[in-house]
Design goal:
Keywords: Signal. With 112 residues, the protein is an all-alpha fold. Helices cover 79% and strands 0% of the residues. The protein has 4 helices and no strands.
């Protein structure tokens, strides 16, 4: 009886620890924001608000953010400071997308 109770407690403890570590690596807010930014860039190219070179630069910034996220997740824990750094980079990239789309340059519309 005591052995099975100990085994059960050990299993529950192991599950709790593994769940906690998985929860600290998952970044759903960051993932959703990255999808949104990619969609904004695609839409900007499609409507002529962004040129292909501008879009390429903006996509490069997004790739850097993905690399930062990958590095943060490498040790199994995304700390509060790492999330804050990624969020800061995302905010800057988002502002860059907005500025490029609204900078008043006249671009030929994309032909479809």
């Amino acid at each position: 009886m005591q052995k099975s109770l100990f085994s059960l407690l050990a299993a529950v403890s192991l599950l709790a620890v593994s769940y906690t570590s998985v929860a600290q690596v998952v970044t759903p807010g960051i993932n959703a924001r990255q999808r949104n930014e990619r969609a904004r860039i695609r839409q900007g190219v499609a409507t002529g608000e962004l040129t292909r070179p501008e879009a390429a630069r903006l996509k490069g910034r997004e790739a850097e953010i993905r690399q930062d996220k990958r590095a943060a997740r490498a040790d199994g824990i995304v700390t509060r400071d790492e999330r804050q750094d990624i969020r800061k980079d995302e905010n800057q990239a988002s502002r860059a997308i907005y500025r490029q789309k609204h900078d008043g340059q006249v671009r030929p519309r994309a032909v479809r």
